[in-house]
Amino acid sequence: MAGAGMATAEERVDAVVVGAGFAGLYAAHRLSELGLAVRGFEAGLGVGGTWYWNRYPGARCDIESLEYSYQFSDELAREWKWSERYAAQPEILAYLEHVADRFDLRRHFRFGHRVGAARYDESTATWAVSTDAGARVRARFVLLATGCLSKPNIPKIPGLDSFRGAVHHTGLWPAEGVDVRGLRVGVIGTGSSAVQAIPLLAEHARRLVVFQRTPTYSVPARNRPLDPEEERRVKADYRGFRLRNWRMPFGAFADQEPRGGSALEASPEERRARYDTWWEKGGLPFLAAYDDLLVSPEANRTAADYIRERIREIVRDPALAESLLPEQMVGCKRLCIDSGYYETWNREHVALVDLRRNPILGIEAGGVRTRAERFDLDLLVLATGFDAMTGAALAIDLRGREGRPLREKWASGPRTYLGLCTAGFPNLFFITGPGSPSVLANMVPAIEQHVNWIADCLAHLGARGLGCIEARPEAEEAWVEHVNQVAGFTVFPTCNSWYLGANVPGKPRVFMPYIGFGTYVDRCDEVAEKGYEGFDLRR
Ligand code: NA7
């Protein structure tokens, strides 16, 4: 084994792929099919990415299984059977392990290697990439398949290190699980991860104390075993189903009628009936009940009022219900979908600490001290989210032309052209990077679209004897402006979400995802058709 500081031979390949989740696996597959030599690195000891790390109780996808899966292979799609409407983490991990085996993808990767640095060498037009486990490789191309939600956000709460019990972030959950039976458990955070974990932690914990900074909106997931008849129907025309999703603003939900129109043009009774329908159906399509929920604050208020009313109905203690009512616009922070979240608040041994009124002063050996009270705890769960969209890329010491660090270039926020490339960093590609639909699209089709675009681009370069592609600064400038302009038409920039980087202290406040998957795909196709408009292609 190569230890730190030990000289190892430098490997030479065509492309380095960082990460072995949905994006990295497919990138390794496509690029090796093109005949390129690929070296993949993955910090985890196995494939899976997000689904390798997020093993907390209740971890589950919020996009339906039949939509959240690869479409590059008809055989794969036909032979893989999902067991539930929304797949849980172990099943998605098993799927990715199956994909890795079926397409023989593990051979491309070295596991347990975290990429620490990648430097562009202008004299040879190559990237020198190194890992913390001592691997060194030189490649023409680097693809960052590092994920949008992969760098855990560990809060800087005074005394956190002094806590006597175990502390687990939901995104770094031990693979062997955590036995909470009989324990007094504290959960910090009430985003998607917490909303999924809380009902299950409450099943076994002796006492559960949830520290809430911002109440969240959640609609029921209505998860259920996948009906074989439904699966048969969808798979009978799987390509058509995928294409309909492909044209939707979020790359999903196409087959879920009825929808559309303006919430403001409907009567209160019609609105109530429509929201009831979507509440009963469950899941994120609730936000598509009307066309204007994410663009008109007034329309949004009707949906927000509806959910607040449901929370008041479910949570029996009126004072507790009030503390759980969100104030921001619905969908501004990612809508949660749950299985029994609000119902859990009716359990005697579950307590809420509203940090807006009673902030945490610090953590001590035996528990959490707030301004009003001390909570004795045996285990602390940090459901505090991620340094989203840029965290994993910026954790790598990336240097482009003239040795310029990406951290410096992005000091006031990420800047990309199409979310794929950034000027000054030739032959570096982001898969679902900031400025692409990414987290505001169904991630799997978004990943496949990116990887296909990149693979076609590399084939284009190869066929013309070109070795280098770089985004032009003016194209990047115009794209960044466009991404912000589109976001400005929506309710998304109105709250402190991770889409804006607002969950991480000191992070620049910039809206990162591009809104509109269908429009985005068209733009990428057009750029390629016009000979990679906005890029410089060089020998
Ligand atoms: P989220 O959605 O970012 O949620 C993190 C939660 O942790 C959220 O309620 C935060 O409150 C809270 N938080 C973060 N830092 C602190 C501190 N310092 N003190 C108290 N509370 C804090 O992450 P998730 O893992 O739940 O979900 C991420 C995505 O994964 C999700 O959207 C899906 O796309 C899948 P805040 O709202 O910032 O006030």
Structural features, described:
This protein is α/β, with parallel strands linked by helices and 539 residues long. The chain is built from 16 helices and 20 strands. The protein has helices at 22-33, 50-53, 74-79, 89-102, 192-204, 228-236, 238-246, 268-281, 297-314, 318-323, 341-344, 391-394, 406-409, 443-463, 473-488, 517-529, and strands at 10-18, 38-42, 109-111, 115-121, 126-131, 136-144, 166-169, 184-188, 207-212, 218-220, 336-338, 350-354, 360-364, 367-370, 374-376, 379-382, 397-399, 428-430, 468-471, 535-538. The strands form five sheets. Strands 1, 2, 3, 4, 5, 6, 17 and 18 form an eight-stranded mixed β-sheet that branches. A five-stranded parallel β-sheet has the order 7-16-8-9-12, with helices on one face. Ligand NA7 binds at residues 149, 155, 170, 188-194, 211, 213-214, 334, 355, 383-385, 498, 503.
Key descriptive features of the protein:
539 residues, alpha/beta, FAD/NAD(P)-binding domain, 8-stranded mixed beta sheet, 16 helices, 18% strand, globular, disordered N terminus
